[in-house]
Automatic annotation (TrEMBL):
Phylogenetic lineage: Eukaryota, Viridiplantae, Streptophyta, Embryophyta, Tracheophyta
Domain ENTH stretches: 29-164
Name of the protein described by the UniProt record: ENTH domain-containing protein
SMART domains given in the database record: ENTH (SM00273)
Location of this chain's protein in the cell: Cytoplasmic vesicle, Clathrin-coated vesicle; Golgi apparatus
């Protein structure tokens, strides 16, 4: 007679639940007008014990230059921020993490769009949320610091915001130079999840082995979907309905008719070509 340990049974339940959720997402993609980017944003800002990683946020910020996906992403973030409370705080926190990235890496329209949420974010600050996990990470302090950071960005003038965007993008490029910064999760032989917690000082880490095992499954799926969306973005770059985020592409400047850019008549041109012509 085989005796199943509680941990093994928990992993079985986790895998079954994960499989069911993936099937539901597949049905949504087929039967509704939901987009892959919309699903990815929902997953990145749900109640996961880990925040969205750098790769996922990069994919979402590039997808935000697609007009339809921009509005879908913004709506999800508006709803997440509105639903902050002491018991279900992780979704709102993950939304704050993604929002900071979008303000500094996505369309400039995001800063204007979320000025209407300043009171909501101030309410999160006034809530004085307190939570220190079993490993000693102060999540309450992190939520407050991130809220203050976003309010500073939203209240900045255009020159200050441009400076912050340039600084953040430079930092992102430097971080990418160190390798797989966003990879926090790898599976051991016994199925537990080990993490590269290089970003833990910024966003924090998981708590228990069971949570980390579930997180590992879900994060792998998120990363897989991020790669799929990235490939689709590359295929769509030549489409008239897709606007390349040239600020994030080395060697390019924005000169295109983009609905979220300040200049109305622009076309994407290579700085290398401009230099050659001059």
């Amino acid at each position: 007679m085989v005796i199943t340990s509680p941990i093994s049974f928990h992993k079985f339940k986790t895998q079954a639940s994960f499989y069911l959720k993936e099937k539901i997402k597949t049905v949504r993609l087929v039967l509704t007008d939901v987009t892959p980017t919309e699903l990815l944003t929902e997953e990145a800002t749900n109640g996961n014990p880990w925040p969205p990683d750098t790769q996922t946020m990069g994919v979402i910020s590039r997808a935000a230059f697609e007009v339809d996906d921009y509005w879908r992403i913004a709506e999800i973030l508006h709803q997440r921020l509105l639903k902050f409370d002491r018991k279900n705080w992780r979704a709102s926190y993950n939304a704050l993490v993604l929002l900071e990235h979008l303000i500094t890496h996505g369309p400039k329209r995001f800063a204007e769009e979320f000025k209407s949420d300043e009171d909501v974010i101030r309410e999160i600050l006034r809530n004085n949320f307190q939570y220190i996990d079993e490993k000693g990470f102060n999540w309450g302090l992190r939520v407050r610091k991130l809220s203050e950071r976003i309010l500073e960005l939203l209240e900045s003038d255009q020159a200050q915001l441009n400076e912050e965007r340039s600084r953040a993008r430079k930092l992102t490029r430097e971080i990418k130079g160190f390798g797989s910064f966003g990879q926090r999760c790898s599976t051991t032989n016994n199925g537990s999840c080990l993490g590269d917690y290089s970003s833990s000082t910024t966003y924090g880490i998981c708590n228990s082995d069971q949570l980390e095992y579930k997180s590992c499954l879900e994060e792998k799926e998120v990363n897989k979907k991020a790669k799929v969306i990235t490939e689709k973005q590359k295929q769509k770059q030549n489409s008239k309905h897709f606007w390349v985020n040239a600020d994030q592409e080395d060697g390019y400047s924005i000169e295109e008719n983009h609905p979220f850019c300040e200049n109305e008549l622009e076309t994407t041109t290579s700085l290398l070509i401009s230099t050659t012509d001059s």
